[in-house]
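step=encode ok
step=design start
structure_in=
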């Protein structure tokens, strides 16, 4: 091995701040386009593990509004920031049903901010993989922080667990859904609870109830989720929200959990990549290899069962290596 590999032109462009190259590469990731491969491979060594902050929570609780204000806050302290909004492609699950959905503010003149939405296309696993790879590009491109908004569909929200270093669950006072949300598994993934819309009545009760829930599961040596109250209309609590996120990021470093978490995530990612690739290869072979087609014929004819066929297939693969 000799030094760092030469960067492909697109990767060089991304590192030098070319936004269009960055946007094109993210589109390639989204579409499963093979062009993304060389860019991702060559830029991995340049990633610095910047904070990836995920925002999950029910429809309309104010995730986008909060992210807009956090972006302003981060710019005011001279940090650059990229935002990815994971949008469901189905019109039925979109937040726009409420008709008052906040869009990210365009900041055409600020090179320190980058916004991008990605279609979720239903498959939670696929979203996680594409979002993770897009976040890596944003990291390599030099952004200090990546913020990811997921839309309130349980599956996609849980995918945030796999990619975010800090997970913010956004709730609002007096939302019947809250209990459902907590049951749906969001409670376990929260590093920070953000009770937004504290300008509305009931915020204190909501915070107290949450504090009680959090207090039910204290764990020595583990992170205790922080609870922050915010309002984007007043606005208030935005610096506190960022403070809670930073506190969690510091905890990840001081406790060593960033390192162990990263190992687990990378293990899952690599195994997933191998599984996908082997699966595609095997499917192709089952269709084309005469011996394997005969094996499949026998399963179809009920002469052997699928598990036995799988054992034989695995043995055949082992022998061939
Ligand atoms: N009263 C009040 N309204 C707010 C606050 N934050 C957001 N809203 C309103 O809530 C609505 C939804 O805000 P969004 O920021 O789009 O919420 P979201 O969680 O991103 O919504 P989806 O992406 O559709 O799930 C908008 O009408 C906002 O103006 C707040 O702090 N107080
Ligand atoms: Mg939104």
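sequence_out=
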């Amino acid at each position: 091995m000799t030094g760092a590999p030469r960067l492909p032109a697109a990767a060089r462009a991304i590192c030098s701040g070319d936004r269009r190259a960055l946007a094109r590469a993210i589109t390639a990731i989204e579409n499963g386009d093979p062009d993304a491969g060389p860019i991702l491979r060559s830029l991995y060594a340049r990633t610095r593990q910047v904070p990836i902050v995920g925002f999950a929570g029910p429809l309309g609780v104010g995730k986008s509004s909060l992210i807009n204000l956090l972006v302003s806050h981060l710019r005011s302290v001279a940090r650059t920031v990229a935002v990815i909004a994971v949008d469901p492609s189905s019109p039925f699950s979109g937040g726009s049903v409420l008709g008052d959905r906040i869009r990210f503010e365009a900041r055409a003149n600020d090179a320190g901010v980058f916004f991008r939405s990605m279609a979720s296309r239903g498959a939670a696993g696929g979203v996680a993989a594409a979002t993770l790879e897009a976040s890596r590009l944003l990291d390599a491109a030099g952004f200090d922080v990546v913020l990811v908004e997921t839309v309130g569909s349980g599956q996609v929200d849980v995918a945030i667990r796999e990619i975010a270093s800090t997970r913010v669950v956004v709730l609002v006072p007096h939302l019947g859904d809250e209990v459902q949300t907590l049951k749906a598994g969001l409670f376990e993934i929260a590093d920070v609870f953000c009770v937004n819309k504290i300008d509305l009545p009931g915020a204190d009760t909501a915070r107290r109830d949450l504090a009680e829930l959090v207090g039910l599961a204290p764990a020595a040596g583990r992170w205790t989720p922080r609870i922050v109250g915010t309002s984007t209309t007043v606005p208030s609590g935005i610096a506190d929200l960022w403070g809670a996120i930073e506190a969690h990021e510091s905890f990840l470093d001081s406790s060593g959990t960033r390192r162990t978490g990263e190992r687990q995530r990378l293990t899952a990612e690599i195994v997933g990549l191998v599984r996908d690739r082997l699966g595609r290869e095997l499917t192709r072979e089952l269709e084309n290899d005469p011996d394997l087609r005969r094996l499949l014929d026998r399963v179809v004819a009920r002469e052997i069962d699928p598990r036995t066929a799988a054992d034989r297939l695995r043995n055949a693969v082992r022998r061939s290596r």
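step=design ok
step=annotate ok -> The beta strands are 52-56, 81-87, 113-119, 145-150, 166-171, 192-195, 226-229.
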